[in-house]
Design brief:
With about 140 residues, this protein is α+β, with helices and mostly antiparallel strands. Helix content is about 70%, strand content about 10%. The chain has one domain (about 1-144).
Length: about 140
């Protein structure tokens, strides 16, 4: 469930970016907003589990560098601070997505905008939920 919080904005970005011409403007709006609403619901559940009940979660994916003096792994940490910041990031981004549907209705490159906005949301969540400085740096550089 915790990795789904990160995956849904990426899924919305990929679908609006690569399938933007096939699904159209309305399809890009529906897919990206739905993915962020689902991610918002999952962050709310995670806030209850981690923030209120106090059970932090560490998700270890794999080692990137494993040498004698240095060990760098891809991992994500969901503790009380992470979930609180993720809640703020995903709620604001969801509201920006919903507001942008009407605000940018006359923009000819709507699908591209929504793809980039969902990708930015993914990297902000990636940055916030990083388990070490290496993953946080990757999220920070990518969010720029």
């Amino acid at each position: 469930m915790y990795l789904s919080i990160l995956i849904f904005p990426l899924l919305g970005s990929i679908s609006a970016g690569f399938l933007g011409r096939k699904i159209g403007v309305t399809g890009a709006h529906i897919i990206t907003c739905t993915c962020l609403i689902i991610s918002s619901i999952l962050v709310t559940v995670a806030f209850y589990e981690v923030g209120i009940c106090g059970s932090p979660v560490t998700i270890y994916l794999f080692h990137w560098i494993d040498s004698e003096f240095m060990s760098i792994s891809w991992e994500f940490l969901f503790d009380q601070l992470t979930v609180s910041l993720s809640l703020a990031v995903i709620y604001c981004s969801t509201l920006i997505h919903i507001y942008s549907v009407d605000y940018l209705s006359s923009d000819p490159h709507n699908q591209r905008f929504f793809s980039y906005l969902s990708l930015f949301t993914f990297f902000m969540l990636f940055l916030v939920s990083a388990g070490n400085y290496f993953v946080m740096f990757i999220g920070w550089i990518s969010a720029l």
